[in-house]
Amino acid sequence: MPRILVINPFGGTEFHGRANLERIKRPDTQFEMVNIGDTYPLRNNQWLYFKYACTDPTLEKVLWAERNGYDGVFLCCQLDIGLYEARSLVDIPVTGTLESAALMAYTMGKHFTLLSVDYQNGEIQRDLLRVYGLERNLASIIPIHIDANDLYPDRTSDSAVFERVVAAAKTARERDGAEMVIPGCTLFGSLLTHHKDRLEREVGIPSVDGMVAGFKLAEMRAELFRQGAMAAVSRAGYFTKPPNADWNTLRKSQGRE
Questions:
Q1: What are the residue ranges of CATH 3.40.50.12500 in the chain?
Q2: Cα separation, 96 vs 214, whole angstroms
Q3: What's the CATH architecture for 3-98+212-253?
Q4: What's the helix, strand, coil split of the chain in %, to 5?
Q5: What gap in Å lies between CA 203 and CA 169, rounded to an integer?
Q6: Sorting pLDDT into bands at 50, 70 and 90, what band is 196?
Q7: pTM (2 decimals)?
C-alpha cells in the first residue's frame, strides 16, 4: 500500500487534480495533497523570484513526508520546484511534473510542444528540459497568454481556458509538427485531462498531463523502492547528501530540528 504525498509548491490546488488522480491511481495507493499556503500565500509561482521563494517551504514538506512514513513524493508543478534539491535530501523517491511529462512524451512520439502560460515561464521550462537532457524533441513553446493567477475558475471559466489551449494546440500541430502537447501549468493540465477526449477530437493530438505522469511515476518508483527492487536515488555523485555536520549547523541556525 504505497503512500504518496502530492505537494503543490504554491498557495493553491488544481481544481480537477484530485479527481483526476483518484481515477488513475492504483486501488491500494493512498495519497494526500498539500500546498505551502501557510508560508507562501500566492496562488502562482510563475515569476523567476517566486520560483525561488517557494523552493524552501516545498523542501520542508518533502522532509516532513519522509519523517512521516510516506513512500514517495510528487512535486506537482510544471516548474519542478526543488526537484533536484529534494533528491539530495531524502531517501524516498521524488518525482517532478515537467520531467515526468517529457519522459512520457519520449515514449509516445517524436516531437512535442510545450504550452506555457507566458514567454518567461516557457523559457524557464526550456532551461529545465536542457538540464534534464530532454529538450531534443521539443518542437516549440507556445504561450497561451493567461496568467497563472487567472487560470483558477473563480477568475476564468473552464471553457475560456479550454478554447485558448485548443487554439495553441492546433498551431502546435499544424505549424510545428507536434505529435503531442505538454501543458506548461498543472492548473490547465488538469483541465485538459478532465476533457481528454474532447481535446483529442478537436485537435487530433494528445495532451501529456505532467500531473498524471508524475503521480504514476511516483507510485511506480515507491513500489519498487518498497520491494527493494530499485534504489530511490544514487548517492554516488550529483545527489550526494550534504555533510551531516554542516546540515545540522544550518538547521540549528534556522531554528529547525
A1: 3-98+212-253, 109-209
A2: 6
A3: 3-Layer(aba) Sandwich (3.40)
A4: 50, 15, 40
A5: 7
A6: confident
A7: 0.96
CATH code given to domain 109-209: 3.40.50.12500
Residues 117 and 184 sit within 8 Å (Cβ to Cβ): yes
Answer for the pair 137, 108: CB distance below 8 angstroms, yes or no. Answer: no
Q: What is the mean pLDDT of the chain?
A: 95
Say what the alpha-carbon torsion angle 98, 75, 209, 111 is, to the nearest 10 degrees: 10
Cα–Cα distance measured from residue 150 to residue 215, given in angstroms and rounded to the nearest whole number: 25
Q: How far apart are CA 33 and CA 41, in angstroms?
A: 16
Query: Quick one: which of 56, 89, 52, 59 has its CA closest to 75?
Result: 59
Q: Which residues contact 39 (CB under 8 A, 6 or more apart)?
A: 57, 60
Is the sign of the CA dihedral 104, 106, 109, 110 positive or negative? positive
Under the banding of pLDDT at 50, 70 and 90, the label for residue 197 is confident
